[in-house]
Amino acid sequence: MKKHMVIFQPSGRRGDVEEGKTLLEAAQSLGVDIEGLCGRKKVCGKCKVRIEEGYFEKDNLDSGMKHLSALSEDEKKHIKPEDGPQIRLACTAEIYGDVKVFVPERSRAGKQVVRKAAKELSIALDPAVKKYNIDLVPPTLEDMTTGDYERVLKFLEDDYGLKDLTFDYLVLKDLQDVLRKGNWKATVTLWMDREIIKVEPGFVETCYGLAVDVGTTTCVGYLSDLTTGRVVNTESIMNPQVPYGEDVMSRITYAMTNPDGLEKMQKAIIEGINEIIIRSISDIKNDDPKPGFAIDDLTIVFNTAMHHIFLGLNPIYIGRSPFIPAVQNSLDIKARDTGLKINPSAYIHVLPLEAGFVGADNVGVLIAEEPYNQDEMVLVIDIGTNGELLLGNRDKVCSTSCATGPAFEGAQIKFGMRAAPGAIEKVQIDPFTKEPVYKVIGKADWHTHLEKVNAKGICGSGIIEVAAEMFKAGIIDKSGRFVKDIKTQRVRKDSDGKPEYVLAWAEETSIGADITITQGDIRAIQLAKAAIHTGAKLLMKRLGIKKVERVILAGAFGSHIDRESSMILGMFPDCPIESVYAVGNAAGDGARMALLNRAKRVEANERARWVEFIEIATDPKFEREFMQAMHIPHMKDEFPNVKKLLEKSESTVEIKG
Amino acid sequence: MKKHMVIFQPSGRRGDVEEGKTLLEAAQSLGVDIEGLCGRKKVCGKCKVRIEEGYFEKDNLDSGMKHLSALSEDEKKHIKPEDGPQIRLACTAEIYGDVKVFVPERSRAGKQVVRKAAKELSIALDPAVKKYNIDLVPPTLEDMTTGDYERVLKFLEDDYGLKDLTFDYLVLKDLQDVLRKGNWKATVTLWMDREIIKVEPGFVETCYGLAVDVGTTTCVGYLSDLTTGRVVNTESIMNPQVPYGEDVMSRITYAMTNPDGLEKMQKAIIEGINEIIIRSISDIKNDDPKPGFAIDDLTIVFNTAMHHIFLGLNPIYIGRSPFIPAVQNSLDIKARDTGLKINPSAYIHVLPLEAGFVGADNVGVLIAEEPYNQDEMVLVIDIGTNGELLLGNRDKVCSTSCATGPAFEGAQIKFGMRAAPGAIEKVQIDPFTKEPVYKVIGKADWHTHLEKVNAKGICGSGIIEVAAEMFKAGIIDKSGRFVKDIKTQRVRKDSDGKPEYVLAWAEETSIGADITITQGDIRAIQLAKAAIHTGAKLLMKRLGIKKVERVILAGAFGSHIDRESSMILGMFPDCPIESVYAVGNAAGDGARMALLNRAKRVEANERARWVEFIEIATDPKFEREFMQAMHIPHMKDEFPNVKKLLEKSESTVEIKG
Predict the structure, then answer these.
(1) Which of A233, B116, B165, B226 could covalently link to B207 via disulfide, CB atoms 3.0 to 4.6 Å apart?
(2) Confidence band, pLDDT 50/70/90 cuts, at residue B115
(3) How much is the pTM?
């Protein structure tokens, strides 16, 4: 049967698909996330996609398009002018030629799963933005020489001891009407107890702030009530810059080689964050025409390249020697100058950078985990598309970054996906039968054999677990190669003759295909973990220490990364398991802390300068260390604690030490 | 012959004009200012006007329009699409029906004449905006953890001792390229030694600021070099809000009664100031696509209503009891938030208000004349569409405002005009022959009889002089009435049978008509001077003083107001002539001082609060005082000094005292 190449953006997934299949079927077979609420009944209209190439509307609007079936009546009913041009329903459009398809975020099935209850942070509540109720005496002819503005300032000074305040110009414009509407009772929102950024009629209590973590691949926003410190909503999207490059270097290259590249990517991330803003607040302010304006503060972290692109700063200079960023200090920028649609008088607080590619996100990790307040020697590993490491204690902390690649975020893994409903997040493999059990996001229980659990793919935490379990079960060896002649139908050859392990049979999935872990997937995981291990090792050498006393695993995974699996893979130098902690999205925690306590912002600036950045990629020992670290857990080093773990489990595998 | 009503905006001049006359002829006969460089040869295209009513293009485009002649070939050649709709050349379009015509500022003949050399201010130079040259060491791999931003801050701290600086976000965006373009030499512009508002490659020395005085009728801008304090250019326009109301109250009413009234008037004044900005800087930066961006600071003064409208603040509350302004303090607003097209990172410094209608312009007068530093009892009179008075010394200063009307600005005077070329600015009348001599702006010498001097009308300073001279020559009496049976052809009856005095014969003018001073003109002058006198008198009563020791006459006249004429008219209580000073535009001087010395901004805020505002319109003595002050110089008060003046001149008039 004839096949055609279908490419899905922004994920970049591609594959040959049989002629006549719908775009939705193609998407599912390629593990691409498209909403299909109505189950292909063509009634929900949720699966709208935009055809980027292969749509020849002009020639074939009614007669059928060259590369896709003609627009059906169902589609005409659902597609509206405001959807934009070249929109089709994925469940309906059939493939008759090569096409490139863009899946808008709203048509993607799964919101990233980030624990709603977000870790309770133990931090004193002292946000940069606070609300104050004021109750003015209505003016009379006797005090006509005092303006509205001055009345408000006087009340704030007399009743709250707040001096030398300024008004944002936009707020000033509303002031007269607001005071009179509230009958001289009003609520004033202050930034840093310095500038008035909002005036509302009457007494208002709640005050919202948003902490944003922009990752290379995913972006998360935590909407917080600044009066309680609680996270009231968590929203995430795939970073809309992905189509311009999957990693940091390719995006820098895109900015360098396209005259409008920087502008396009900046626009994409601003729009993406605006999507998070709207989604996070719209349940709460759903009758408000500008719901985002209810948000009065926003803190944001990202790596250095994303930081520059977000700010519209040319990232070219951080991509070439001597790798100088435009700015390292934290910044406070008027929301209206950024295009972010929160209260336009509010400030966006951009956390500071450390150095090179160790960005504001790692500063977030730093102030959340505070290695500088510890006596123990702590290794903090933040796993994303780049891995960032911190090592040290109250005397000294060093940082470095290592190119892990996006494997742990589900990219470059055959069935990898974001931590969304349908993603396999936990895996166990029986060392004797080699049969797996796994847990899918959105299902409460572990799956049982051949049960239809609508698995779609595997997310970061699942990827780490499945690799460790395959090693423990003897399916792969220390070098990461599939062990030959294993007696199980789970291990088989793929179409290229390379071995793969079937984690879920097609019957159990929603994509109509087996979910497998390939030799290529294992290699990607090894490369990623070896990069982290090498970084940690070289940092230890520079600090002259032989072992770490505590390991903290951070990353924006769906569920926490499994510390045992990470240890078994040898992601970091040996350490007692009880001293290994998985903390979730520490960069996001740092952004939240800066949102909830303004002293943390000062701390971030001070500590970002204090941490010593160490460049490890140019270390002469790097290559040898990296090769050795490719082994599971390691080619040479002793891993007594991993050995203990393997003994405790019923693994048949033996390792040195 | 058939006549049609022609109305010209924004001046509001109107009259019946013979059918077949051109719009330019109509304008000249009505004293309306339209450029006619080519002398009606239809080649310069400078006399473009917009037809607001009476233009029926759709029906009659080629066949001739109902109210105007058909569009000629000459007009088609000159009128471009970017001129907008309904544009005609005034020299060509002939009148065949009633029309309303708007004369754009660029088509007006005369720039307001304000002395280019603007008064040398004796003030220490310490502007809010300063430029600093920096010379950085190019970065290397050894100091890669320092960003561009931090390098600039470090240099400014090490070499200039400037600490805790912030960067405007827009400047930050340019920083990387600017530093590299200048090979790490650059010039940093600082606002209040606090915020970096510009970075330019290489070493730049000059630094420009603009002081703006927005009057009800005219607006003036003084472009100053902040490194020398010199005024390098002065530009003025008619306030483009005039079509929405000629005085303050009618503009407030317009804002109250039209939903978009405030917005329209705000837009008009912003565009007007942008016109001043472009004109003032474009000689200097004529190769710059955004010449206004060379201006790094702007101070602005205006009365309370103009202040509110400029800021987009609803003026409704200052127009009704208890007359509370939105804000009184000075404001610093980002230029980009106002729409003013100077450096978008710069600040607009809005001087504070005093109270009621005593606005930032009077604060300008206050800090320019500093009555609070005087031992003598000083009366400062600022004459505009509103008159504002200050009376006091270092112990106490009181202020009030009085509704003078726009007579002294040339409006509501039959041949009144702005102080532009062609305006009669000085007048002397022979007390025996009643023959005048006068001086026209743009001509070096006084005119001689029947010499063609192209007079067009009479401006503020001329109006005051002609009234005083007519009194001295016995043409009008103490009550302001024309004296009957004067033997001169200069005094005659107008078409309504009212007496008028011919100041210039048609042969001497460029408008083809006699320039006359009517009984109505004299009444308007009397009302204006009486308002000022009454204000001064009641302030003196409140302060319990019998006489003033110094009088300062201020106002944005073309030349200085003649102190003798003002005294003779009785514009203020009697005072020795040697203690009367005419200082020109003191409000503008105050704006310039705030531009050149930042301590003046602090002084302005403090003194605006310190001055006591006194409402005189509600004083029970007001009406009687006003009636008495209508007389020249006064009905009852003694004016020994005026008597001396009259004796010294050869006037035949006798006054009491």
Answers:
(1) B226
(2) very low
(3) 0.81
